[in-house]
Design brief:
heterodimer; A: 112 residues; mainly beta; globular; B: 116 residues
Chain lengths: 112, 116
């Protein structure tokens, strides 16, 4: 069964460092998403991406965050200058049409 | 604003017993509703979805959910729990249209334990 793959599974970084989380969506999917889950809290929508541009973003997705689809297969989330509160599990998802999302296993980010 | 409330952060049942996980939603427009399951160290897997067709929705692994508009509920049930059902379950609502339909609002999750 096709799956969304995310790397790394766990990353530890120092506050202020840049982090790039990578995702390989399912190959025929057109919509791409990032969500995050801070420990003990809800899974929260960050951003959706379609047709090579951001289609929607939440209030969380400020100027420190950016997304890119640098080639035909990868979808990345960059955090420019990490803060302690960015520590969370980040989930990538993709969908063929809208609203039936397939999620990856997540990338755990720990900011020290 | 849309929201989802899952009653009970932790539910424990015996193997073979009924599973009932509760979800209530708030939405000013007809919602799309979902249940996802997360096994340890894995991603969120879609169990079932309601998209305004039949109100009783059947999903994978013997789970089903009933959309009740009058109660704004979408509770998840399974007649007989199995040990392999132990996981965390998330209810989610989507009220966007077009490209916004992937903007899901999740509940806090309910961790299901199954006792032998």
């Amino acid at each position: 069964e096709p799956e969304v793959t995310q790397t790394p599974s766990h990353q530890v970084t120092q506050m202020g460092q840049e982090v790039i989380l990578r995702c390989v969506p399912i190959s025929n999917h057109l919509y791409f998403y990032w969500y995050r889950q801070i420990l003990g809290q809800k899974v929260e929508f960050l951003v959706s991406f379609y047709n090579n541009e951001i289609s929607e973003k939440s209030e969380i997705f400020d100027d420190q965050f950016s997304v890119e689809r640098p080639d035909g297969s990868n979808f990345t989330l960059k955090i420019r200058s990490t803060k302690l509160e960015d520590s969370a599990m980040y989930f990538c998802a993709s969908s063929e049409g809208a609203n039936v999302l397939t999620f990856g296993a997540g990338s755990r980010l720990t900011v020290l | 604003a849309q929201s989802v409330t899952q009653l009970g952060s932790h539910v424990s049942v015996s193997e073979g017993a009924l599973v009932l996980l509760r979800c209530n939603y708030s939405s000013s427009v007809p919602p799309y509703l979902f249940w996802y399951v997360q096994y340890p160290n894995q991603g969120l897997q879609l169990l079932l979805k309601y998209t305004s067709a039949a109100t009783l929705v059947k999903g994978i692994n013997g789970f089903e959910a009933e959309f009740k508009k009058s109660e704004t509920s979408f509770h998840l049930t399974k007649p007989s729990a199995h040990m392999s059902d132990a996981a965390e379950y998330f209810c989610a609502v989507s009220v966007g249209y077009g490209g916004s339909q992937g903007n899901l609002i999740f509940g806090k999750g309910t961790k299901l334990s199954v006792k032998p």
